[in-house]
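Instructor's aside before we start: the two examples that follow are unrelated to each other. I chose them only because their records fit on one page, so don't look for a connection. First example below.
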Amino acid sequence: MDKNTYRSIVIKLGTSTLTAGTSALSAARMVELVRQVAELHQEGRQVVLVSSGAMAAGRERLSFPQLPKDIPAKQMLSAVGQPRLMALYEQLFDIYKLTVAQVLLTKTDLADRSRYLNSRNTLNALLTQRVVPIVNENDTVATEEIRLGDNDNLSALVANLIEADLLVMLTDQTGLFTADPRSNSSARLIRDISTPTIPESLWEAAGGEGGKLGTGGMFTKLQAADLARHSGTTVIIAAGDEENVLVRLAAGEAVGTRFSPLTTVLESRKRYILAGGNNVRGSISVDAGAERALRRGGSLLPVGVTDLKGKFDRGDAVQVLNPSGSEVARGLVNYTAAELGKIHGKKTKEILAILGADYDDEVIHRNNLVLL
């Protein structure tokens, strides 16, 4: 595989990886992982870290004998550990003159379309500035009802959020096995999964709890891999202590277990747009020039909009109508109906003065638009 295929990479670092199997964060292990991320960054790739370890850091600081089961105690450990974890990351990445940013998310941030877009825009803005976002679930405020449950599934949602080419989940195992290798010496490593459905036997083999310091296990990694590959992302589960593992994976080397994407990111997005046909929130009428631009593969700009109908929010699906009233496209809009009502027919450079903020230059970006 051409290593340039992986331009955008999400890396999930589990607690067992960050502690190197001990009861505390391993500075030596983290230094090595940061070095590899810096190398990927230097190659021009965009990298997002989804990092566990906050509870382990808090547990170490407060000398807790073991990870508690109740949510308030876990939230307390996270509140203590999260700033310590980020301080360590900042020190290590500063060695390579890289800036990091903390991004804390909950399930509601990604379930609500407006928050989803805000989260995506924030991450994309950070990546544009060559900052390394470090994402974690907001454990200090999440409850049993709203928490994502583990950073494995969070990493898959982040991969979807930024339309990543590759999701790497590092763990204390070399990949996915036909059985638990810790208790079955005949367990065999699965190198590649490309079937539309993951065999039930592998789900059963992946069952069970995670380590003493973390909350996830191989089952949640399998869940996350299945989610991400349906969004067009290649997924690899590999051992965090494998030599130069991140650099080798980004270069296309076969390490660990690889899950082939079941679709392209673009096809996945187009299906989402078209599947939202029953949830179209409104329509946007465009002039002949805008219609020609769309058919040539361009985006829809405010200046080309002549009218609009319906009450839609940012991220909603809308119809795009030509001057004769026929639907020529469908897309996800970047502005609310109220906002678009103020800027339609205007030039892009006027958006900031009219609205006080400009979320995007385009009303609908070409990547979020399907011609009909």
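Example two begins here.
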Amino acid sequence: MSQIACGKLKAISNHPNDFAFLGDVTLGSRLDGKLALVREKREGASDRAPEYAVLYCAIGQRSMRVMGNAWLKNSDKVNGGDFMSMTLDDPDWNSALNLTAFPPDKNGGDWRIIWSRPRGARVQDEQVAA
């Protein structure tokens, strides 16, 4: 499975807009701008409800808009166990984007955002090698 690093998120505390994470993301023609994750109200929500709403602001635009959701997950295979699974979508896209954010290592730093191309998936314009 192909993985491409496409951004970073910084954990924010006490931000006036309730942003939990802020960062930059760049992924070809689909994403090039700022991401913000805002904690969702989970009172009475199921365990499957997302922990965060994902907001996006493209470079050159002035306002953020909701583009998807993020779920906090846990895996023994990941450093520290926790990671975030994000799904972003836009009516102009053929399909949703699935991103994963991995926590900083033990020395601190930012969360790393990775896009993984599903097995067998190809870019529409990509030609099959003969």
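The radius of gyration is 16 Å.
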